Each structure stands twice: as structure tokens, then as C-alpha cells.
Amino acid sequence: MAWDYDSQLLESVAVRRRRMRDALLFGVERARRTADERLGKLFAGIAITAVLCAGCVGWSFLQHTLAQQKAEEQEQRQRLEQPYEPPGPSVTP
């Protein structure tokens, strides 16, 4: 029984603190939104933005790397396809 009273007391203190904080932060419109909701949305937005930016950077890096590899492969193919021509006698008029 004492345990229930303690948990009720702690919960009521937490509710009172939250209400006092909201009254201090928001004044008359304290019931509209709490600071926790706004901060949560702010951090969620920042996290989503960071993930999207990291994805864009990763995609760009991947595209650059693949284009570089493709260019190197083309260069190697061109080197192998070009026949070796030994220098011939020079003709002077």
C-alpha cells in the first residue's frame, strides 16, 4: 500500500512541475503545446535533414566513383586496342 502512495506522490509532483514549467514558458496559452512536443519535432526534423543530406552525399560519392572507374576502363581498352606502330623511315622531300 505504501508503494502505491509513493508512486502516486511522485507522479503528482511530476505533473505539477510540468504544469509550472508550461505556465512559465507559454503563459496563458500553456495548454496549447508543451516544450517537449516542440523540441521533439525540432530534433526529429534535424535528424531527418541530416539523414537526407548524408544520403545525397553518399549518392554523389558513389556516382563519382563509378564514373571514374568507367573512365579508367575506357582508357585501358583504348590502350589495348591501339596497335603498336614502330616508327618508320622518315621521308624528307
Give an overview of the whole structure.
This protein is an all-alpha fold and 93 residues long. Helices cover 77% and strands 0% of the residues. It contains two helices and no strands. The longest helix has 47 residues, at 35-81.
Order of helix and strand elements from N to C terminus? HH
Mean pLDDT: 84
Helix content: over 70%
What's the end-to-end separation, in Å? 118 Å
Over all CA atoms, what is the radius of gyration?
Answer: 35 Å
Strand percentage lies at under 5%
Give a quick rundown of the structure.
With 93 residues, this protein is mainly alpha-helical. The chain is built from two helices and no strands. It is rod-shaped and about 110 Å long.
Keywords:
rod-shaped, mainly alpha, 93 residues
Question: Which secondary structure elements does this structure contain, and how are they paired or packed?
Answer:
Blueprint: H1 2-26, H2 35-81
